[in-house]
Design brief:
544 residues; alpha/beta; Rossmann fold; GMP Synthetase, Chain A, domain 3; 3 domains; seven-stranded mixed β-sheet; seven-stranded antiparallel β-sheet; 15 helices; 25% helix
């Protein structure tokens, strides 16, 4: 059965334009020698190289027992290994399930369990964390990078050769890959409970990537957001759609940013609010406008955006997106309205509603809800979470959980998060998960985690705690208690001890009250105390 036999809605992109296997095959045939990817280690892939890497990785995965529709976990930093694993899985019609590199403990156990995966591809430095958790269906771990370290009882550990194959023929399929097939499962931050597993189709990723409508085949995108976030995935896919190229780095780095842009002739990238603050904080240089960067997608859009555009001579764009949706709101270049998220893009319907899904008047705040003209152009639910799926998709609209307002000209403005997520340095943090670890401390009776404004324009985590009778709390000791229990980006910067937490009649913590009172509270600041928490850096040395 040929892939052309897959029937689609007329509004849906063709298989050749959205299914990764067909899209990559088309690019490799049309531009085999054009550079697609450049990596921090100095290596590069043409489109033909990329297809060959995907095919051989796909065939190696078949030898490991991976079939079409299976889930496979990826726990790797940005680089060639992460990219070829993603592409190799999709060559098979299998499902890419990346894990945040900072996860450990209960968070890690949850995402491994809900994935249903039997196979995990990992950096060896992370292997020891698996020994600390229940591993559900997981049977085999392939160490693609770093040293394997001590074996983990109950797991078969394979080296990097397990992902290599001499077979350069495209792997056979059980059936044609369809646009609506699940291509990835991406985990949310988890705001009212554990992280949810977002089911993402090829159409969903294509629709998200199409939000970068200013890209051309001549553009080169700096991908410095991780491949376990949609912020790393959709730019890569957008470039593949357009036939351009990418530069893949493990993370954003202020000191090397402009050197990377110049050395690799980067024309476009994403700059989050904190990144902009760090770059603008660097001393002015005589040649700081002498670079190839033309387009910058900046979220959120505010005064740093204006300053960045003026100082560095780039066109700045903004948008609104989340893992579950597909850039329903986007701006043109330099929209000039502080706080704006953009305007509705073609192909989506938006409403701003009250708690009963009734539309609020123009200018008033309410929850943003979304639907699309094209089937499958947003998530198709949460894996193994039917109640959460039904709640999010109630009344035929996807409910974002975010408060917006729209003006008479159709400009949309983000107001606040209805959910309790905290955004710090590009990471969405679950207050639920922070509070669970705070509550494990023997001195803490009750806890709430809220956002507190950072000098860099985003959020810091503020832990508001009450103490057990007769207990005392050393904030510094609390931080050291939390460090091995959670990712570095989740560790609170501020600690505030209060007599009691304000609650509603139904015993829900009134976090809005805490946010309004925090500026007058006696907050302990770990950075002022000289303790800065940094994410663990993984060694780039490859085994084999």
């Amino acid at each position: 059965m040929a892939e052309a036999a897959v029937r689609t809605d007329l509004r849906m992109p063709a298989v050749a334009d959205c299914v990764l296997r067909a899209l990559l095959e088309g690019r490799a045939a049309a531009s085999p020698n054009k550079i697609f990817a450049l990596f921090a280690d100095g290596s590069s892939w043409t489109y033909r190289d990329t297809l060959d890497a995907a095919i051989r990785t796909g065939n190696a995965l078949r030898s490991l027992g991976v079939n079409q529709g299976d889930t496979v976990l990826s726990w790797l930093p940005n680089g060639p290994e992460a990219l070829r694993l993603w592409f190799g899985l999709n060559m098979l019609g299998a499902i890419y399930v990346p894990i945040n590199l900072a996860y450990r403990g209960a968070l890690l156990e949850h995402v491994v369990g809900i994935s249903g995966a039997k196979l995990l591809v990992i950096h060896g430095q992370l292997l020891e964390r698996l020994a600390e958790i229940e591993r559900a269906a997981l049977e085999t771990v392939v160490v693609a990078l770093g040293e394997a370290g001590e074996p983990v009882p109950g797991l078969t550990i394979r080296g990097p050769d397990a992902l290599r194959s001499d077979d350069g023929a495209a792997p056979p399929l059980l059936r044609p890959i369809a646009p609506w097939d699940t291509q990835a499962i991406i985990y949310t931050s988890g705001t009212s409970g554990p992280s949810k597993a977002v089911l993402s189709s090829y159409v969903h990723l294509h629709a998200t990537a199409s939000g970068l409508d200013y890209l051309t085949a001549d553009d080169r995108f700096l991908v410095n957001l991780p491949y376990f976030h949609v912020g790393g995935l959709f730019p890569t896919y957008a470039v593949l759609i357009k036939g351009g190229s990418i530069v893949v780095t493990e993370r954003f780095d202020t000191a090397s940013f402009w050197a990377t842009v110049r050395a690799h002739e980067v024309t476009t990238c994403i700059v989050l609010g904190s990144m902009a603050s760090f770059l603008l904080g660097q001393p002015a240089a005589a040649d700081e406008r002498h670079h190839p960067l033309r387009h910058v997608l900046m979220v959120p859009y505010g005064q740093p955006s204006f300053t960045f555009a003026e100082r560095f001579g780039c066109a700045v764009y903004t948008h609104f997106n989340m893992t579950e949706i597909s850039v329903p709101i986007r701006s043109g270049a330099n929209p000039g309205l502080p706080g704006v998220a953009g305007r509705k893009r073609p192909g989506v319907d938006l409403r701003i509603v009250d708690a009963n899904d009734c539309e609020v008047p123009v200018g008033e705040s309410g929850e943003l809800i979304v639907r699309t003209d094209c089937p499958w152009a947003m998530n198709h639910g949460y894996r193994d979470a039917p109640d959460a799926t039904a709640a999010a998709w109630r009344n035929g609209w996807f409910h974002t959980g975010d408060a917006f307002r729209v003006d008479a000209e159709g400009n949309y403005y983000f107001v606040d998060r209805l959910k309790d997520a905290i955004r710090r340095r590009g990471e969405n943090i679950s207050s639920f998960e922070v509070e669970a670890e705070l509550g494990a401390h023997p001195a803490i009776e009750d806890a709430a985690a809220i956002a507190y404004p950072s000098e860099h324009g985003e959020d810091e985590v503020l832990a508001v705690v009450t103490l057990r009778e007769g207990a005392r709390l050393d904030p510094l000791e609390l931080i050291h208690f939390l460090l091995p229990r959670m990712p570095a980006y989740m560790v609170p910067r501020f600690v505030w001890v209060v007599p009691e937490l304000p609650r509603t009649p139904t015993q829900k913590v009134q976090k809005a009250v805490l946010r309004s009172q925090a500026a007058q509270g006696e907050l302990w600041d770990r950075e002022a105390a000289g303790l800065r928490v940094k994410s663990e850096r993984l060694l780039s040395k490859r085994t084999g």
